[in-house]
Design brief:
Layout (H helix, E strand, L loop, with lengths): L16 E4 L7 H9 L3 E6 L13 E2 L2 E2 H6 L4 E5 L4 H12 L3 E4 L5 H4 L4 H5 L6 E6 L14 H8 L19 H24 L4 E5 H7 L3 H9 L16 E5 L4 E5 L3 H10 L14 H6 L1 H12 L4 H10 L4 E3 L3 H6 L1 H5 L3 E6 L3 E6 L23 H9 L3 H10 L2 E2 L13
Parallel strand pairs: 1-2, 1-6, 2-5, 6-7, 7-8
Antiparallel strand pairs: 3-4, 5-14, 9-10, 10-11, 12-13
Helix pairs in contact: 1-7, 6-7, 6-8, 7-8
Pfam family, one: CoA_transf_3
GO molecular function: transferase activity
Organism: Roseinatronobacter alkalisoli
Length: 417
């Protein structure tokens, strides 16, 4: 019986096997990072349409941008978890896995017969990570949770706007991503512990908990003052000057987090007298006199262009940046020099560009990625290599609607340890 498929890379998690039941974003982002780090990830998808994000436009030759963004370097097995045979297959794969990842509402995996207690009974080394909107023991209970719901309940939306304007969700899906990021912390810590004890863990991460944990200094402002931080647009709630400033033809970012940078900025503005001005000499006074200082800065900076100020701010060693569009950000020299974009070949979509993972070891980034799989692209490969099934077994499961295969799913002859 073939025990495993050859690991994709020599990354630090090479040899670690992940069984991924998660879908959409909170969960798939975590399993994608595990794949970047060398783990073998088998993504379990519903046989009808797969991960819901496969249907989210825009598409490239039928492949969703959303699915591309979150599912590189994973194997796809299309499995009917509502059938006893489908659950049996999932249990068989879990027995051989180091990590199980799921992001259903609490209780769903138990009802499917795939809960932590059930799977751990046959694999005490299993690390089982559950991501949900609110976790257990929450008054929000079984309410569905998506990124914007978590953002709203966390308080972060309330400060993500200019004063007097309607609150906005963050431009990136941080509610979803926060759940994935904290789950990675838990998974990697549990792997370390397992090396010492031989036992796995059940990790629970809630999206709302994760965003609350990422409030940082905002929560402490409330605890210390008793008042909720108010929106300040792109400015900082307690550091002045800091944020977006208008020029004659646009805006630039200036971030004077320390007195040294504030002094440099005052000199850059040809306003060195501001350094000793009692209204602006120390943090507290600059904060108390924010409007007066902002007016002085704006009057000076709107006389010259963004390019002028970016060059001058750099000359005076003031933290600064232009405000780039997503396209400009992806095309900037930094991204090119760091090798953050790669081209991969997909059997239907053709050549596609993807953003690479950001983690480097010994100066080297992740191995080249594998394009996101078609639905069921690896069903036969996984069942043969992991569970030792032959084609007659597989044909029976196909006829029964337990599994689904892709036209590109071919038996693999690769074996590994």
């Amino acid at each position: 019986m073939i025990k495993s498929i050859t690991p994709r890379s020599s990354g630090p998690l090479s040899g670690i096997k992940v069984l991924d039941f998660s879908r959409i974003l909170s969960g798939p982002y975590a399993s994608m990072i595990l794949a970047d780090l060398g783990a073998e990830v088998i993504k379990v998808e519903p046989i009808e349409k797969g991960d819901e994000t496969r249907g989210f436009p825009p598409f490239k030759n039928g492949l969703s941008h959303y699915y591309i963004a979150l599912n590189r370097s994973k194997k796809s097995i299309a499995l009917n978890l509502k059938s006893p045979e489908g659950v049996k297959i999932a249990k068989g794969l879990a027995r051989q896995s180091d990590i199980v990842l799921e992001n259903f509402r609490p209780g769903v995996m138990d009802r499917l017969g795939l809960g932590y207690d059930t799977l751990r009974a046959e694999n005490r080394r299993l690390i089982y990570c559950s991501i949900s909107g609110f976790g257990t023991n929450s008054p929000h209970g079984d309410k569905p949770a998506f990124d914007i719901v978590a953002q709203a309940l966390s308080g972060v939306m309330s400060v993500n706007c200019k004063p007097g304007q309607a609150p906005n969700k963050l431009g990136i899906p941080l509610g979803d991503m926060a759940g994935s990021i904290f789950s990675l912390f838990g998974i990697l810590a549990a792997l370390h512990e397992r090396n010492l004890t031989g036992n796995g863990r059940h990790i629970e991460v809630a999206m709302l908990d994760s965003l609350i944990a990422m409030q940082g200094y905002l929560s402490q402002i409330y605890f210390i003052t008793g008042e909720s931080p108010q929106p300040v647009g792109s400015q900082h709630p307690s550091i002045v000057p800091y944020g977006s400033f208008p020029t004659s033809d646009g805006h630039v970012i200036v971030a004077c987090l320390t007195d040294r940078f504030w002094h440099n900025f005052a000199r850059c503005l040809d306003q060195e007298a501001l350094i000793e001005d009692p209204r602006f000499a120390v943090y507290e006074q600059r904060l108390a006199n924010r409007d007066a200082l902002q007016a002085i800065i704006q009057e000076r900076m709107t006389k010259d262009s963004s390019d002028y100020w970016l060059e001058r701010l750099t000359k005076f060693d003031v933290p600064n940046a232009p405000i780039l569009s997503i396209g400009d950000a992806l095309e900037q020299a930094h991204v090119l020099n760091r090798g953050l974009i790669e081209n991969v070949d997909h059997p239907i979509a053709g050549q596609i560009k993807m953003v690479r993972g950001p983690i480097r070891f010994d100066g080297k980034g992740p191995d080249g990625s594998k394009a996101p799989s078609l639905l069921g692209e690896n069903t036969i490969e996984v069942l043969m290599a992991k569970l030792g099934m032959d084609m007659s077994d597989i044909e029976t499961l196909l006829d029964q609607g337990v599994i689904k295969r892709s036209d590109y799913d071919q038996p693999s002859t690769e074996v590994g340890g």
